[in-house]
From TrEMBL:
SUPFAM superfamilies: Acyl-CoA dehydrogenase C-terminal domain-like, Acyl-CoA dehydrogenase NM domain-like, SMAD/FHA domain. Its main location: other. Residues 286-363, 391-453 form a coiled coil. One of its GO terms (cellular component) is peroxisome. Its cofactor is FAD. The keyword Glycosyltransferase does not apply. Residues 1-20 have a biased composition (Polar residues). InterPro entries: ACOX_C_alpha1 (IPR055060), Acyl-CoA_ox_N (IPR029320), Acyl-CoA_Oxase/DH_mid-dom (IPR006091), Acyl-CoA_Oxase/DH_mid-dom_sf (IPR046373), Acyl-CoA_oxidase (IPR012258), Acyl-CoA_oxidase_C (IPR002655), AcylCo_DH-like_C (IPR036250), AcylCoA_DH/ox_N_sf (IPR037069). This is acyl-CoA oxidase. It comes from the Eukaryota. The keyword Lipid metabolism applies. It holds the Pfam family Acyl-CoA_ox_N. It comes from Entomortierella chlamydospora.
Amino acid sequence: MNGTMGSSGINGRHQPSNSPILVLEPVNDTFALKSLELPEHAKVKIGRQTGVATAPHPSNGYFDSKVLSRVHAEVWSEGGKVYIRDLKSSNGTFLNGRRLCPENTESEPFELNQNDSLEFGIDIMDENGALLHEKVSCKIYISRMSYPTPGSSPQDSHAKIKPPSPVASGVNSIKSNSVSIQGSQSENIDLIITRLQSELTRSQETYADLGFLKHSLGELEKVMIVKGGEIGNKNNNNLANTNGQATSLTDPPINYMELQNQREKEHAAEISRLLKNFEDAKVQWEIQRTRELRSLQEENETLRRNQEKANEALNQAASKMDFTTTRINAMIQEHKQELETVRREHEAAIANLESKHKDDINRLVIEADAEQEGLADKHKRELAEAVALARSSKSEDSLTLEAELESLKEETQILREARDAQIRRAEALVEENRELLQQLDDIKTELRSVQQMMKSNTGDLTSLTPTLHAATGESEGSLRPRGGSKSAVSGTSAGIEHGLSEGDSRPTFSWSQFVFPIARKNDARLAQKVLLMSALRFPNLPPSEPQGSDLLKQERAKTTFRVQELSTFLYGEEVLERQERLMSLIEKIPAFDKSDRYFLGRTERFAHALRKDHELVKLGKKHGFTNDEYTHANALIDEPGPLGLHRGMFLPTLASQGTEEQIEKFLKPAERYEIIGCYAQTELGHGSNVQGIETTATYIPETDEFEIHTPYLTATKWWIGGLGKAANHAVVMARLITAGKDHGPHPFCVPIRSMEDHTLLPGVMAGDIGPKFGYNTTDNGCMWFDHYRVPRISLLAKFSSIKPGSGEYIKPPNAKLSYGTMVLIRASLVGAARQGLAKAVTIATRYSVVRRQFVDHDAPKKLGSHIVETSVIDYSMQQYRLFPLIAASYAFFLTSKEMMRLYYLNMKNMATGDFSLLADVHASSSGLKSLTTTMAAAGIEECRRACGGHGFSSFSGLPLMLQDYAPNVTWEGDNYILTQQTGRHLFKTYRELVAKRNSGRWNSSHVNNRTLAYLNTYLDNPTLKCPATTPSHFHNPELQLAAFGHRAAFLIAQAVHAIDVEKRTWNSMLVDIYNVSVAHCQFILVQNFILGIRGELPQPDGHIDIARTLSQGSKEVLADLSDLFAMHTIHKEPGEFLACGYLDAKHVSLLGKAVMELMETRIRPNAVGLVDAFAFPDYLLNSAIGAYDGRVYERYVEMATREPLNRTEVVEGYEEYIKPFTNPNNVKGHLMKSRL
């Protein structure tokens, strides 16, 4: 044993110790009681048995339990206190129910106290929930062991050795409660047994300790006797006391045997007392059990008598039921006869219809044949006459006659074609007749379901009678829906009726009450509306008052600005006019119909999207769409398709990185859709790390080709939109290798499928990667290459190229020239973020007006004199959730415009060799893409949640919107990885600025961008404080900009100091870098918002800033939104603003008041008008709850009727999967009813 585990005396014998003893008393029978001695600073390990050396023992900390780690924890004493620490255990250590530390981390020391609860590990269950391994659980008791010393009494010694264990308290508890044990006998017995076991264990250990002590004292006594004389003579003078008395070594020795015997007697007496108490408790428990049994017998007798009475009552009820059943059976027979009469009449009507249609078709065919034969005979005669005339006449007019002859032939051909058309028309009539027959079959099916319905409801005579009256024409001459209601919801205004003539007195079915329209393709050019029946029917009842449409009208009447003016500010008149024109085209084309979108599976949705893309290309060619018109039309249809990446990535990459020759060879055919492409960059093993992609493109100088190859499984191209099934070409990013040197990733335009039959080319394998969280209308694909050869022209060589033959690599003039495409895509994603968030908040805001919940007792709403429930939008929490999202949408609008302006300006500058804007634009686009897409995705989900349960329905439009938007946070750079690019640029800018200021070569005139401006202001005054003293002060735009700029600069300065001075690693700084990027981009959003509504943002060449012409009302509401965006952002995330010292706690409190007041008094009246200004047509939103007219509940139930599951009343599979449980014996009619 380690020397720290105990002390050694003469010859290594055990010496007295005052170390604490930690007693672990089991509470779940997983181990025997343990007593662990803890010398000062000596650490005792707690762990799982792994061998003989770690076998469990009452004096060590090892357990036979699989829930513990090998080295699970350790305990020790220090300064008289006992401590425990978890040593990176897997299943944890729990002190009083609290885990000391997370998994695989070492905890801080925790002090242990008396009666603490300690648990090692957790219960482990199997897959069925059964307990496999139980955790080690115990109670803590701490005592201090002290071996007897000369002069101490046996009682004192015993008191010191015995820990303050719960045994004594358990005994006293049994004594004090031995008279009344009421319900706790078994608990007391278990406690007594546990205490007895622990006391017995302790007695055995004490006995062993005393034996060892006895042996040691005997040895000591022998030594003292032998050396006694010498010691006495030597120390005789020293033993004299001050009174002249002496202490003799012959004083009687302490009788340790007597001390041991006395202790044993005390233990025996205590055990006897515990046994006696155990017997007493057992007797009391048996008495109590006898009493409970007697009580249960009495209750059982009472239940038996009650059961007999119930049986008598049931017998009487059964007699009455038999009498009632007899009467019902008689009535059923009568009703069956009536139904049979109705059935025969309708079958006769159906037969008449079938006969009539057949006669009509036969007549038309006969007439068409006769007409064609007559015309053919006539033309034959004319032709014969003309030929005879031509043969008999040798005049100069022969050529004219020949021409006329040819003309007659052409006319004959036309007539033949007309006859063929008549035949096709007859065939169409036959097909139409077949469809009518199918509809008649549907009517028969419906009749059978009505009959079944009437049979199943025979027990309810009240509801059965009016149904029969309706079926026999006794009431209003039409068959009513189930329940006898006189009205039913009309699924569409265009109804179709199948019945008899008006003069016929028999009943007529009006199916227009129960049908709804869907689009169905009739042929390649025509899609007609057909009507299908739904088994789900709603009564023709209005929602409760007030109506949603009225509520939205009231909201729009409150608006303090002109909605059209604000829409023009956001888009411009040209865009709004273009949208109106495009909508007039799109809504007429069946391929763009959205009515079935929420009901289709992935295969059907992909086929629909492929058809949509095809029709959109045709529409664009027909009307000469510009790129903007094409993009706008695609956004209105709002369905990602297989050709999306062809337009979004393939074409821009060819345009920006192809040479003139490559533009002719690849880009122009691609613009005509002769080539359909995708952008293959991401790999199975690499996404954000583009420099790490593994696909290779090795130059072969002998053939002037590149060999593209996939060397590893992880090099397989993955997630490539359009690759799965649609594309026949791909821009492949591969590592360019020439002359054995790797030059990194470069783009190659590569054919992958045959232009003849779309099969994969030899050396290429590709396919779809399967279903995804969203975007399932796009065929994201995978692809690998097997030494696939392509010509040298495949390398897009606008910036870098290979010399033919030699393979010499020509570097680009600037390594970041290819960043242009990335900047465009990321700037476009900022615009997509504002579009996605604006759509979601439009739906949620309109629905929040219509949706009413609870009554605000402090400010109740009234309709006339009646109190009605409060609109959800009037609750401050709903405003706090939605109104900042409206403000953020407007902020995204303005920043997306500015980013596109900077992109085009940078491309213009780069064309002249000016790269000064590139770094800042690239860094800002990266950070803004990360921030805005993260905010938009979170905002769409917040809108969905804000719509409550109906937001969870696909009919709201929000779930599919979120699914299809979600990829934006990952593609084109993961949102957390991208922020590192922003951080690197900001740190470099800060270092350069500090160096210039320190060199004395700097003045304020050198500030030429927003980043330098706020960094320079911070360095001028790093301790700047907010001057606001009232909530209204926070409406000052300059104060808002100062707050965001100071906070961003502070975070940049802190990060640079940590990296440069403290030598922190880049990896350890990633969270700080992310925060820096967010702060910088929030500053950009706030600044663009403020400058945009002032009319101070730079405009593209030839554009006029509309902001300067806005009316006062529009300017004020935009200023309110700008204030809300800035103030809410600070109020929601105040930590960094407090850390940088610009704000204090008082400012945060004032800011909260300003935000709430602004939303309630300024934004609330304009909320609906602000989302209306986004100008989203209902077709685009495709939402039951977010339409412009507010008819939420009417649209909701109408969409439910279109659910394919509702086309039948009884679900397919009932016979196989439900009926075997509910009606296995096929019981019919009243017998099944009586069971209920």
